[in-house]
Design brief:
Blueprint lengths: L14 E9 L3 H11 L4 H12 L5 E2 L17 E2 L2 H21 L6 E14 L2 E3 L5 E3 L2 E12 L2
Antiparallel strand pairs: 1-7, 2-3, 4-7, 5-6
Amino acid sequence: MSRIAYSVQADPDTTSRAMGHELHISPRHSREICRAIKGMHTGQARKYLKDVSILKQAVPFKRHNDSMGHRRGPMAAGRYPQKAAKEFIKLLVNAKANAEYKGLDSDHMKITHIATKQGRVIRGFRARARGRSSPKNTETVNIEMIIQEVQ
């Protein structure tokens, strides 16, 4: 595994950061969740992600929404990416723990930067009839999160 750098430089005195490497979640779902929670306070984002994981709150899909049903409320197309939401909760908890370790107030933090990048593809195959095979690859995702203390 190669070392992955953060795409943004942040002030280490007021920010905390966390990164998830090669997570087995959908790149499309992770992109839409990133778009939804960017700019939220950490407590608000955690509650939002918990609601997504228990199918109470849908994530609006803006880019990847072909033939997707609409959801209740002012949102148009949306889904409930439970697996991705659980991974984002783990990452958010990690970033808050890093903030506490640095001596920052972890209750008054805001997500200033969150991005998802494509990870490596884990190659696999599915056996087919007559000795043939078809690809069955697993996409992975790298997620970076930077939270900043707000006054």
